[in-house]
Amino acid sequence: MSKPRPISGFPEWLPPQRMIEQRFLDKIKSVFEVYGYAPLETRAVEPLDQLLRKGETSKEVYVLRRLQEDSSASSPDDSLGLHFDLTVPFARYVLENSGKLNFPFRRYQIQKVWRGERPQEGRYREFVQCDIDVVDRDTLPAHYEAEMPLVIGDALGALPIPPVTIQVNNRKVCEGYYRGLGLGDPEAALRAVDKLDKIGPGRVATLLTETAGATDAQAKAVLALAEISSTDASFADSVRALGVSDPLLDEGLAELVQVVETAAAYAPGLCVADLKIARGLDYYTGTVYETQLAGFERFGSICSGGRYDNLATSGNERFPGVGISIGLTRVLGLLFGADKLAISREVPTCVLVALSDEEHRRAADDIAAALRRRGIPTEVSPTAAKYGKQIRYAERRGIPFVWFPGDPDSIKDIRSGDQAEADPATWSPPAADLHPTIN
Amino acid sequence: MSKPRPISGFPEWLPPQRMIEQRFLDKIKSVFEVYGYAPLETRAVEPLDQLLRKGETSKEVYVLRRLQEDSSASSPDDSLGLHFDLTVPFARYVLENSGKLNFPFRRYQIQKVWRGERPQEGRYREFVQCDIDVVDRDTLPAHYEAEMPLVIGDALGALPIPPVTIQVNNRKVCEGYYRGLGLGDPEAALRAVDKLDKIGPGRVATLLTETAGATDAQAKAVLALAEISSTDASFADSVRALGVSDPLLDEGLAELVQVVETAAAYAPGLCVADLKIARGLDYYTGTVYETQLAGFERFGSICSGGRYDNLATSGNERFPGVGISIGLTRVLGLLFGADKLAISREVPTCVLVALSDEEHRRAADDIAAALRRRGIPTEVSPTAAKYGKQIRYAERRGIPFVWFPGDPDSIKDIRSGDQAEADPATWSPPAADLHPTIN
């Protein structure tokens, strides 16, 4: 075959990068679990009609067909598409299995998702999302909306990445405010405000008048709300000072105050109330989240989500939820691109057992087996090449120790050159060398 | 929306099952890493022409198109399909990145794969494979063929599943023997023998005469080879006793003896040389592996692989490899179906902090934060319901401990009913209760 080439939008990491991703995933999972979130996976495919329920995303979906499928026999109703996020599949899973789940149901889900969008830096066609969600039957207490940023703050805080800021807003604040203003189409207004960072206030004002039926004064008032932000509860006073009143606005402000104050108590500096945050997807009904990675703000949010009251609803059953999702591939892509992450070795291996000749392979395997039994990642040299070449095998991969069988055996730290007698039944590496370390 | 239904062939686990799968994955990964295999992932898609290089699998491929794609603009050459295994993508990855990899290159890869086959018990359209492979540039030492079963023996042996037997054979034995017999089309003969378990020796004999041009005597001789098996090196004598000679046969026998003897030394009872094992895919050129799960033999191999010398080849570059793949979804599906696996709880949570009233939520959150900081998975009660109801919340999920804030705080083991004073800064659960346990 001819030399293969990458496919745009479908990133693949080199071994050291994938080692870093794996360690990020381990950290994220362990934080999610310490908060009691249970692991869950859903299939990669959903019926196409389910994926298209949200008009905004229809352009992005990958549709599947079997190569040998009789295309005349299959109706579009049966078509399957690859999921474009993990929230829509999760809502479907909850409805499908509601009789077998215990509510409130807390789960994390780490999987690839696919979107047929135009690829660009930080934006992919295949990428990994790390989601947590809580859903409950009929009603969902608001304190879960305050919990999401804390979990994410711990998870991202455990990673060797620049600091993050989680921007929070509440759909009820915007919708209530727009209603109080007398705006006829609050959803259209939200969609316009969602473009603020991209197109600026002037063009958003135009959009508001053109698509949301706003007067100039209303457009100005909408933009005034979007300008408000604070790291404490003072944003609520700023909103009230705009002189608009509506019961939904009051409800949203109270919820947003709770989120910001909880975050200020447990993770000072993590959250900011930012009233321009809208989120594009239209299933959110309460708190919404976006997250900025310091130094990479221009690439957009790396962790987003919100509360959705109507996504998992069927007949009389209703499961309101709240969730948030780390865009891991985007984080890694940006940091790899900026050369901000490195790992001490590109293999898990801590010890390479050297080989004097092929006749002694069994003895070398015995040493490796003894070290592995005690959890020390070990390889045996691929060939009985000259020792210098075997040491280079270790060096190229960042393996810190080479074991020389002998009488007695000895172990060499190839970074310092130090060599000492060692017994495979008792020798252990320094704790910091057992596993690779990042940066 | 109407209540959603499962899609045949796309299994989804319930929370306790997914907890079990997650713990299986953790064990498998940790064994792969202790042998020095580095994690790797490839994208889910490959160019269709790559996937169709092996004629046998073309019927199984899922092809992708973007919903809004202009179908007239895209040529079939650009089509993408979902990968049906992890070996073909890995070979492509090695060729694509050969200048950036260190050889021999050892990697593990745990991902979903997709095949549009007819679903049945133990056979899915979407399933997880856990692969290890070693590839080297130009030549690959045969000792890696002996290593594969040892890694798999350790990985599967670490799981609470019935014992396994790895059946090994070597394509060179079969091809050399067929050549020695004077058979014109050894590949057709292999494909016929591959069906032995499904259709029996009588119909295989017919197939051999019809598709591989065998005489009755040759067909009989082919079946005689397929009947040979042994847990030690004695199979080689049985083969020689059939009186066929060929240099490739001798080479294959020597390699197979090495695999079986290494396994007998490090994992007695794990491997058996079984000369009817052929493997359907035609890229194998040396050792081949299949694995039987005791009590579930009729569902086929749960872990298969082999050596492939020509899969990753481009121009002058050639990367022979050997690999093996655990069919994790099949293993889990069979054991779940037989009700053979259970887990002590369906959430990671070890402690539920009870709540006397909503005003004390911050105090309960403080306790949870203190426990989490020491790695103890903790949740706070969703509501300040009566304590009996809060305890049932824990019971239903299998959470072993409920924490009652007070002066002093106390912790109750809800299985035994024992209750004792506790301090969130120092209390720890028994080690066996920190994480869920299987069976």
Q: Report the mean per-residue pLDDT of chain A as an integer.
A: 94
CATH C-level label of the largest domain in chain A = Alpha Beta
Helix content of chain A: 25-40%
What would you call the structural class of chain A? alpha+beta
CATH third-level topology of the largest domain in chain A: BirA Bifunctional Protein, domain 2
Strand order of the largest sheet of chain A: 1-5-6-14-11-10-7-9-8
Number of strands of chain A: 19
Q: Number of DSSP helices of chain A?
A: 14
Query: Pair with the most extensive interface?
Result: A-B, 94 and 94 residues
Distance N terminus to C terminus of chain A? 38 Å
The number of distinct structural domains of chain A comes to: 3
Q: Gyration radius of chain A, to the nearest Å?
A: 27 Å
CATH superfamily of the largest domain in chain A: Bira Bifunctional Protein, Domain 2
Query: Unreliable runs of chain A, pLDDT <50, ≥5 residues?
Result: none
Using the 3D structure, state the CATH architecture of the largest domain in chain A. 2-Layer Sandwich
Largest sheet of chain A: 9 strands, mixed
What fraction of the residues of chain A are assigned to beta strands by DSSP?
Answer: 15-25%
Give the assembly state of these chains: homodimer
Q: Looking at the structure, what is the overall shape of chain A? A: elongated
EC number (chains A, B): 6.1.1.21
Catalytic activity (chains A, B): tRNA(His) + L-histidine + ATP = L-histidyl-tRNA(His) + AMP + diphosphate + H(+)
Domain Aminoacyl-transfer RNA synthetases class-II family profile (chains A, B): 104-348
Subunit structure (chains A, B): Homodimer.
